[in-house]
Amino acid sequence: MPRGPTNYLEEPRIRQLLSVTDELGYAGPVEHVLEGKPSVHDIVELYRMPLWLLGSLARAVTDAITGRRVGYVVNMILNYTNICVVNCRFCAFRRQPGAPDAYRLDASQAITSVVEHWEKYHIRQVLFQGGVDPSTPLEYFEEVFRGIKSRTRGEVAIHGLSAVEIDWYSKLNRISVKELVSRLAEAGLDSVPGAGAEILSPRVRSIISPLKTTAERWLEVMDEIMKLGLPVSTTMMYGHMETLWERAEHLLALLRLQRRRGLIMAFIAWNFEPGNTELQDTVPYPAGGTELLRNVAVARLVFRHEIPWIQAGWLTAGTRLGQVSLDYGANDWGGTLYGEKVLPAAGVPLPLLVRRSIERVIGSAGYEPYERDNWYYPVETTPRIAVSTGGVAG
Fold it and tell me: What residues bind [4Fe-4S] cluster, as annotated (predicted)?
């Protein structure tokens, strides 16, 4: 498990690197960030540092927090529907209601899919996400979540929906976020993923997703979710219309949110994939691999131990670059992601990864792999999970 607060400036490897940052004029921003007092300007300066130095600092911080161990979870993604009325310009997966290829799994299909993956692969988590379909009743989610918990004996954690889906469905059902999340947690929801954040900038969101939950509202909903005791993950989708300053503001907003609630488990950055999207004429190519490494490293330095887990970002960047991101401060691989449909819709082929192949990928990069659960605990030290009533599992 991660080490608690430490004086990173006293870590031997970091002290060596600080002399180099001083020579290059970056000592001030680095010291501010490692002391836990970052400004937007400091974070922007980190993005401008030489990549090798940025990565070395980030890896040294991760070594101080979790050492050389890298976790992964055996999971599946259940994209329960592709119907969505939010119409984000960066999404190739969404379909309008009534479209010929629009779908929504009925409750029995959704439950059966999870049960089959549990029986075949012994998955420990289902990432349950779709779109905003006004015809989907709240009772649908309650039925599916209860069915998953019952038929997997509570062994599959439900990491489900998003702040955007929760915000929209609370409005569609004319109930508060608190009441909606409480009902979902009672049915079996264990935690909430960070999807829908993209870049928490009003300017950017007005371009790429004008109908989506606003940046301010996304933060409010996530705050409300954590206030109820459910842990969350956070994300950033980069490489489209954002500036470095907006990336820095995004990271700082997440850090402030964590300092208020303390239930953000992890941060995941991935690049925008333009294939088959409305934005591909404006942004024809995805961001290069060095951008992933910069975002991973900067996130590690900004969040330090306060958000302990930084994922490798292999899903969009590929497994080889995912391996390299471990050298830049990542300490979690993410999941096997059986059943993922969103990225293939944008033309991104995904490898089929199982326990052995993930452990081989992590091990060949020079790190020690271990299987974890939904809450980032190593499975060998985690008791069987009882049927969830929400909140943080111990």
Answer: 84, 88, 91
359 is in an annotated binding site: no
* Structure token digits, residue 203: 């300017």
pLDDT tens figures, 76-123: 999 999 898 888 777 777 788 888 988 899 999 999 999 999 999 999
Q: What pairing do the DSSP bridges indicate for beta strands 125-129 and 157-160?
A: parallel
pTM: 0.91
- With CA atoms as reference, report the closest residue to 28 among 11, 5, 45: 45
Could you tell me where in the chain the CATH 3.20.20.70 domains are found? 71-381
Q: Is 220 annotated as a binding residue?
A: no
Is 31 annotated to bind ligand?
no
At residue 304, does pLDDT exceed 80? yes
Edge-to-edge, what's the strand order for the sheet holding 189-191? 75-79, 125-129, 157-160, 189-191
CA distance linking residue 222 with residue 231, whole number of Å: 9
Any residues with CB less than 8 A from the CB of 90 and at least 6 apart, and which?
198, 208, 209, 237, 240, 272, 274, 277, 278, 279
90 annotated as belonging to a binding site for a ligand = yes
Query: Is 116 a known ligand-binding residue?
Result: no
Core vs surface per residue 49-74: b (16+ CB within 10 A) or e: beeebbbbbbbbbbbbbbeebbbbbb
Alpha-carbon span 99 to 89, nearest angstrom:
17
- CATH level 3 topology of 71-381: TIM Barrel (3.20.20)
**332-351 average pLDDT score:** 61
Find the radius of gyration of the CA atoms of the chain: 20
37 in Cβ contact with 338 (< 8 Å): no
Query: Which amino acid, one-letter code, is at 164?
Result: V
The band of 389, judged by pLDDT with boundaries at 50, 70 and 90, is: very low
Q: Which residues contact 288 (CB under 8 A, 6 or more apart)?
A: none
